[in-house]
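Handoff note, outgoing to incoming analyst
You'll be picking up this chain. Sequence as last confirmed:
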Amino acid sequence: MKGNVVTGMGYLIEGARMLKHPTLRLFVIIPLAVNILIFGSLIGFGLSYLGGLMDSLLSGIPDWLDFIEWILWPLIGLTLSLITGYVFTAVAVIIASPFNGLLAEKAEELITGRPVAGMEGLGAALMMVPRGILREIYKLLYYLPMAAFVLLLSFIPGLNVVAPVLWVLLGAWMMSIQYVDYPMDNHQLGFADVKEAVRQRRLSSMGFGGMVALCAGIPIVNFFVVPSAVVGATLLWCKELAPANKP
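Most recent structure output, in case you need it:
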């Protein structure tokens, strides 16, 4: 497998740092406002039910296996956090997708110093809202069968031990595809091209996607994950995934 996990993780951090650049600042405001509105309301709603859900999941453990709760609590908490973070991020991304495409376009121009033949201005972004939403729904339909399979494993005794690991890997894979799609869409590349590009640099892509999935499950931090991930994915595209960078 090609790429580097640590390098991939670093793209999200570098993307977050680039958000302060005056060229990108305007295109960060709308996605950030969407994130704050959605995450602020949905996370509060989700946390109010987390305790009861955890108690319900652990109620079937026999008394002589009580010590396992110390292991299951962090595993279940991490799994629920990743699932919740992905779902909340997906909702925000669907709404703000056209603006994320515009942010990716401006970030690529800043990184490469070359113009990108994409959307120009917020007016053009608004005109692309229907297409952006359809593309996000397509990605969601790709994700759901895999998520359903892992969810099924979560309820099968013995096999459910590996479910948290599978959720982490699936989250990393989907987050990389989710955000790399923006710069590649600006170059009129299809969803099949996105999957193939991520597959070609699997380690870097999974490192990036894993970092995004982890941060998406952290309250407050997840407000800034979407714009940071858009710019981070653009860095990944420019430095590793673009055809000019392939051996």
